[in-house]
Amino acid sequence: MKKKLLAATLVLGIVAAMTGCGSKPTDTTTAPAANNTTAEAPGGEASSTELKITYSGTPEIHEKEYLMNEYFKAFEEEYGVTVTVDFVAQADAIKKIQSEQETGNIVSDIIFADTANMAPYVNGGWMEDISAVVDGTGSTYTDMFDGITNVGDARYFVPNSFDVYVLIANKKALEYLPAGLTEEDVVNGLTWDQYADWAIAIAAGEGKGKTMMPASLESSQLLYPMAGMSLAYGGGFPEFTSDGFKAAMGVIAKIAAGNGFYAEQDQYTAVTDPMNSGDVWLAFSHMAPAGASYNAAPNSYVIGAAPTGSNGAGSTSGAWCYGIQKGAPHQDLAEKFIEYVARPEVNYAFCSNYGGALSPIAEVIDKLDEEDAMMRAGLAMLEDTTISGVPSTEYTDWNAVKLLYGDVFNEVLNTQAVPSDDFLAGIQERLEALKVAE
């Protein structure tokens, strides 16, 4: 409760100081009207009075309401400008910006994209170097994603939030914990074998599986938790033939053989809805979807570290980032926006309203307290977890890579066993064929 109130207070404070998982249709939205006059603000002036943002990805309803009613609106009111936001699917955003660049009809000023889909923007030469703007904000950014957002000395995107994978469990599931384990053990981190035993015990006690993976192959997110499991056993990402990957698939096979999985998991790319409905009680989840459930009813859930394998804990991590399109018609105002999103109070409000996503800004991390449970859980994992970024730039079609993981997962479910070496070798060959030629 405190986080929502504080987030709102912070955004309103910014305004006062001028004297913050299913696919959805493309949606072009204009933030509430503001005085369309010359923009002036601390740190200089901007002559542009309109800013156009292409926001790739489709936020949940409550996230979009926050973006339009607080986050973008506060910028509008501070600078006396109009912000127009085009919410589009990631693939459509890439096509849109490519078309603008090829035709020379540049419409979008700001691009919001994730690291898994950033390669076309960077490799295509579609973005401005924003190094000087970011350096001038005074905020201290993590360098975790520089290998994707930067090329040499040039920075094309700046991270706005990132996350890792955590365990989330309904407290009703605690009665089925394997003997000798407690809620504190869940928080500190179970082993993957203990996780599997717990999932099977829940299913036996409740008469149906209540553990899930985000198994829908449309806009698939399945490869990320599978990759985290593989990393926990010393496997790589992406790859399919190591002993570590096979050990991780053994955990999935064990849960499948024990009928531990939620029967309708193939309809979901995130845990939020089935967790909220009570159909799912246990999951290894991306922080933001888990945080949406936890923050809505914190007394109903337990958040724990990623389970461990023979190589400790493992997780993938990606970031959502802002950049300025090359040739942006409102370059001056776009630079003001990059400065705005770099403010610690603005970034904290955003991360809080996105389920407790992690802030890439050190000044935000230093201000967290005990009520920022999701953020603190994720940050604690950074200390001793094997974390992999998303090497999407190394492959010609990242969605095709995702579907390979879907093929493996479905093979495990169908056979309730680790796939044969021949099967996995065939998947690995298909992965190699997707690599960008050097």
CATH superfamily of the largest domain: Periplasmic binding protein-like II
Give the overall form: globular
Count of beta strands: 17
Distance between the termini: 51 Å
Task: Fill in the CATH topology of the largest domain.
Answer: D-Maltodextrin-Binding Protein, domain 2
Overall mean pLDDT score? 88
Biggest sheet descriptor: 6 strands, mixed
Tally of helical runs:
18
CATH C-level of the largest domain: Alpha Beta
Helices and strands in order:
Blueprint: H1 2-16, E1 27-30, E2 39-41, E3 44-46, E4 50-56, H2 61-79, E5 82-88, H3 90-103, E6 110-114, H4 119-123, H5 131-135, H6 146-149, E7 150-151, E8 154-155, E9 158-163, E10 165-170, H7 183-188, H8 192-206, E11 211-212, H9 223-232, H10 243-257, H11 272-277, E12 282-286, H12 287-296, E13 301-304, E14 308-309, E15 312-316, E16 318-324, H13 331-341, H14 344-353, H15 362-365, H16 373-381, E17 385-388, H17 398-415, H18 421-433
Parallel strand pairs: 4-5, 4-6, 11-12, 15-17
Antiparallel strand pairs: 1-5, 2-3, 6-16, 7-8, 9-16, 10-12, 10-13, 14-15
